[in-house]
Design brief:
With 1024 residues, the chain is of the alpha/beta class. Helices cover 12% and strands 21% of the residues. The chain contains 12 helices and 64 strands. Strand 3 and strand 4 form a beta hairpin. It starts with 5 loop residues before the first strand and ends with a helix.
């Protein structure tokens, strides 16, 4: 009967029986001087094993019949008997260059380090073994060590015959892509000391699968476990039948466990030395039953949702060496009782909500080597923390993490007491003042992060004493002054310098050769010019370089272009660098980012590598055709995702060579001299999100093949010579559109109601065309414009998710508040409709008032009639309204006075009448906003006092006569009416011929005026 079936993502069981320390060293590698050759039957078994193994990178080329198998890659033989003892076929997964403990110190380096790691990962992925596991391994009777980890066996089951390899002591099948049922036969491996089946999953069709499972875990009980790791997806209940009294190490991390009650069987394991419950879903208080595990030396509860304070009983764990409570929601203060943890080596309390002060008792923890308190609410002065750590802990402290800890105050000379510090992370705080000279005393320092503070003054020359420094991050401070060769005298190990957004000036000799070999250099906004820094040519290992906005006025030396083929990131934008860009720098061997925008480069476009992913050549003086650039090596698919050639002098047609550019996400060809029609192959860009073709001389109809680009969120083809009508299919084929700009073209016809299906639209600019007809009433379908904020603006991810931001060159030139403004960084916050300078007629639909998030509405220079919608005051976000040069009539709605954000209004040259509503906003506007109407009241000089005088027609008692008061003005008016009536109509009553001629004249005049009267009555009947 099936006792339990558990679907696993990651199953890791590490079995280690106490054995002699020379367990592995007792067996020599075959590289010794011994002449013993491997056994023939075992050589054949290995060759048969290889036949079923996929080896895409030919790593097993040495496995040839004429070579002693003891000299084959991955094979280890006994130095006397020649029997195969070990088979080491692991593929090594790339790791970051820095330890996990430095993650907060490397917080802002995702772009540069991520790019390098990705290149290494691609090499790893291509070198993994696959295929099948041949049973010929059973002929290796003396095999004690088998490692097939970090390969890709495509979801095949773990072979059952492995349970018959009774000599095995070490079996590692982790991260190898095995699937299906874990064979219970593995329980027969009675000599097994180490078993690792963890992290076996694969991605068929890019779908994540956890595909190892067991019917029960009872077979583990047959093994004499001292260490067990069950990391992965293990839904409760954990089988209580598994009870190892001798268990010392237990790992239940990453199991999505929620209820701490399922751990009761764990609480009885009194011999536990190491317990890892990290990255589950535990909530509430830290389980009180953990206090019974008094033998613990290693406790990891990180990555859960514990929200209590740190329990007092935890401070009594006198044997505890490693404590990790990070990445929870712990609250309250740290008790001074933490000083009782006299054996502790590492404490990680980062990413919680702890507050108060760091206890002085920390200073008494003489064995403490690592303190990570980042991302909490300490709100403390940094000198106070240095004082709290001034005891014996300062002598051995190696890692101090206080990143994003709400610290303030100035760095003091007490910093120099931590002479054994290897990692110091104080970034993203409010630390001010200069960097003390005593920082030069930290002779062991390898990683220093002071980024995003308010540190000022100059960089002390004592930096030159930090001979072990590898990474220096002083980004985004207020440092100023000169940095010279003295600052780098002994920095021979420096590989990362991240120092942009300061006001520093680098002054070194022209022939200076730095003592370091940098991999990452970020000096944006420094003063490096006017000459191009020639010392960069000595940096043979440089992978990432940012010298943007550094005042360089020079040509790029050829020695630098020769280096650039190794870059993963190059940014020399916003300088005044001139000359031509040769083909050499962009022939890259891996995915890379190149930004040379906003310079004075000229000449033709360079030919680029198919591996380039990001290229920004905008705002230069590049000229000529795009043909050679676009059609270069057309047999190779292009990896380009972001291409910006805007604001240059490029000309001619854009060639029909877009078929191999299908990875493009954003394309900007705007502000050039291109002409002709859009080629059909542009429709092959099925991943395109952003298209900018504005300010060229493109002609023809709206590109119909763009209907294939269903992910587009921006189309800007303004200021061209496009003709025809706006296609109906835009509304349903490009449903993700957020920006549609067709301004300054020759489009005609009506605005199709199908556009109302673009519910995500934020910017609609159809101005300066030849559109006619009425404005669609379905504008209220623009849901995004109806919201008061656009917090859901999408974030577009570049490449391998190392650069998360909105598209880097996404900008729009928009007319608002009576002027043209370019929006870029705030574009996601803008909601605009501009239908001006067309031939639109009819009324302004009242439905437009439902767009409460709209900020600018421009309907000027049309032939709109009727009245301004009464409910326009509902559009509370409006900042700019332009209804000028139309035929609007009636009064200005009173509700317009509630538009408190309105800073621009133009209602001039219409047929509006009456008083301008009173409000602080309307009266503060220019009087010219109301010219060309029959309006009165501030800000106009006409105060409406005459127009709105009402005669007093009430009968009142005369104070003088006690009777009715006679108003002689009305008496004379009545007499005049009687006289005039009889002078004009009297003769008509007496003369029949005159009467007939008079009424015929009135009939003829009536026919002429009837059309005008009817139309006027239709639009203004409420006012008559």
């Amino acid at each position: 009967m099936m006792m339990l079936r558990i679907t696993l993502s990651l199953l890791l069981c590490l079995l280690t029986i106490h054995h002699s320390p020379n367990f592995y060293t007792a067996h020599s590698h075959s590289d010794s001087d011994s002449q013993v050759r491997c056994i023939e039957s075992e050589r054949h078994a290995l060759l048969n094993f290889r036949q079923h193994l996929l080896d895409p990178s030919n790593r097993l080329a040495s496995w040839a019949s004429d070579v002693d198998c003891c000299h084959w890659v991955g094979v280890v033989c006994h130095n006397r008997t020649g029997h195969v003892l070990q088979l080491r076929l692991r593929t090594y997964y790339p790791e970051f260059d820095y330890e996990d403990t430095t993650s907060e110190a490397l917080y802002d380096y995702e772009v540069t380090i991520g790019a390098r790691w990705y290149a290494q990962y691609e090499a790893y992925r291509r070198s993994r073994f696959g295929g099948k596991i041949n049973p010929s391994l059973l002929d290796l009777k003396h095999l004690i060590y088998l490692d097939l980890s970090y390969n890709d066996f495509g979801g095949i089951p773990i072979p059952k015959f492995l349970g018959s390899m009774g000599s095995l002591r070490y079996l590692n099948l982790s991260h190898a892509g095995f699937g299906g049922l874990i064979p219970h036969q593995l329980g027969n491996l009675s000599n097994l000391h180490y078993l690792n089946l963890g992290h076996n999953y694969y991605y068929p069709n890019n779908t994540y699968y956890y595909n190892l499972y067991v019917k029960n875990l009872q077979w583990l009980s047959e093994l004499r476990l001292s260490r067990c790791y069950l990391s992965g997806f293990i839904p409760p209940p954990i089988p209580s039948s598994i009870n190892f009294s001798s268990l010392t190490t237990l790992d239940l991390s990453s199991n999505y466990l929620q209820n701490t009650s399922i751990l009761f069987w764990v609480f009885g394991l009194h011999n536990l030395v190491s317990l890892d419950l990290s990255y589950n879903q535990f909530q509430g208080s830290i389980p009180v039953h953990l206090q019974n595990l008094t033998s613990l030396k290693h406790l990891d509860l990180s990555g859960n949702a514990f929200n209590s304070s740190i329990p007092n009983w935890l401070y009594s764990f006198s044997h505890l060496e490693f404590l990790n409570l990070g990445d929870n929601s712990l609250q309250g203060r740290i008790s001074s009782a933490i000083g009782n943890l006299t054996s502790v080596i590492s404490i990680d309390l980062s990413f919680n909500e702890l507050e108060g002060k760091v206890p002085r008792s920390f200073g008494n923890l003489c064995k403490l080597r690592e303190i990570i308190l980042s991302s909490n609410k300490w709100g403390q002065q940094i000198p106070e923390i240095f004082e709290s750590l001034s005891g014996c802990v300062s002598n051995g402290l190696e890692i101090l993490g206080l990143y994003n800890a709400q610290l303030s105050g100035q760095l003091t000379d007490e910093l120099g007491q931590f002479k054994n510090l290897v990692i110091l992370s104080l970034g993203n705080n409010s630390i001010s003042g200069p960097i003390p000279w005593s920082i030069g005393n930290l002779s062991s320092l390898r990683f220093l992060n002071l980024e995003t503070n308010q540190i000022n003054g100059t960089l002390p020359p004592s930096f030159g004493h930090l001979s072990k420094l590898e990474s220096l991050c002083i980004y985004s401070n207020m440092l100023e002054g000169v940095v010279s060769e003295v600052h780098f005298t002994n920095l021979t190990r420096l590989t990362l310098l991240y120092a942009s957004k300061n006001r520093l000036t680098l002054k070194v000799s022209l022939d200076w050769i730095p003592p370091f070999q940098l991999q990452y250099l970020v000096l944006g906004s420094w003063n490096l010019g006017p000459k191009f820094p020639s010392w960069l040519c000595s940096q043979k290992q440089l992978l990432s370089l940012d010298m943007s906005n550094t005042g360089i006025i020079d040509a790029v030396p050829s020695c630098f272009w020769n280096l650039s083929s190794q870059f993963t990131y190059l940014n020399i934008s916003h300088n005044q660098i001139y000359g031509e860009i040769p083909h050499i720098p962009l022939i890259l061997s891996h995915l890379s980012i190149i930004d040379v925008s906003s310079n004075h480069f000229e000449g033709p476009l360079p030919c680029i590598s198919s591996n380039l992913s990001f290229l920004d050549l905008s705002n230069n003086s590049l000229s000529g055709s795009i043909f050679h650039f676009l059609c270069y090596k057309m047999k190779e698919p292009k990896n380009m995702e972001f291409l910006n050639l805007g604001k240059n002098l490029l000309s001619g047609n854009i060639s029909n060579c877009w078929m191999k550019w299908q990875r493009l996400v954003a394309l900007n060809l705007g502000n050039n001299n291109f002409s002709g029609s859009i080629p059909p192959s542009i429709g092959s860009l099925i991943n395109l999100r952003s298209l900018h073709l504005s300010n060229n001389s493109f002609s023809g109809k709206f590109p119909s093949l763009l209907k294939n680009c269903k992910y587009l969120f921006t189309i800007d083809i303004g200021k061209n010579e496009f003709v025809g009508s706006i296609p109906l299919w835009i509304g349903y084929r490009l449903s993700r559109l957020m920006i549609l700009s067709l301004r300054f073209n020759n489009f005609h016809g009506q605005i199709p109601e199908e556009l109302c299906a673009l519910t995500s639209l934020q910017i609609l600019d159809l101005s300066h065309n030849k559109l006619f007809g009425s404005i669609p009433k379905c504008l209220n379908n623009f849901i995004t414009m109806a919201r008061n904020n656009n917090s859901n603006y999408p974030i577009y991810v570049f490449g391998w998710s190392i650069l998360s931001s909105s598209l880097p060159f996404e900008s729009e030139l928009l007319v608002t508040k009576g002027q043209s403004l370019e929006y870029s960084t705030t574009l996601q916050l803008v909601n605009i409709i501009d239908l001006s300078n067309n031939n639109l007629s009819g009324e302004i639909p009242k439905e437009v008032a439902s767009l409460q998030g709209l900020q600018s509405l421009n309907l000027s220079s049309n032939i709109l009639t009727g009245m301004i919608p009464e409910n326009i005051g509902d559009m509370g976000s409006l900042e700019s309204i332009d209804f000028s040069i139309n035929q609007l009539c009636g009064q200005i709605p009173q509700s317009m006075s509630s538009l408190t954000f309105l800073s621009y209004l133009n209602l001039s040259n219409n047929n509006l009448i009456g008083r301008i509503p009173s409000s602080t906003q309307l009266q503060s506007l220019s009087a010219s906003s109301f010219f060309g109407n029959k309006l009165c009241g501030p800000p106009l000089t006409d105060s409406c006092t005459i127009n709105y005088v009402k005669p007093n027609i009430q009968n009142k008692r005369s104070k003088d006569f006690g009777g009715l008061k006679v108003d002689w003005f009305f008496v004379s008016m009545a007499l005049g009416f009687v006289v005039g009536f009889w002078l004009v109509l009297g003769p008509l009553l007496w003369n029949k011929q005159w009467r007939i001629l008079y009424f015929q004249f009135l009939d003829h005049l009536g026919y002429k005026l009837s059309g005008v009267v009817a139309q006027t009555w239709q639009h203004c009947k409420e006012m008559l």
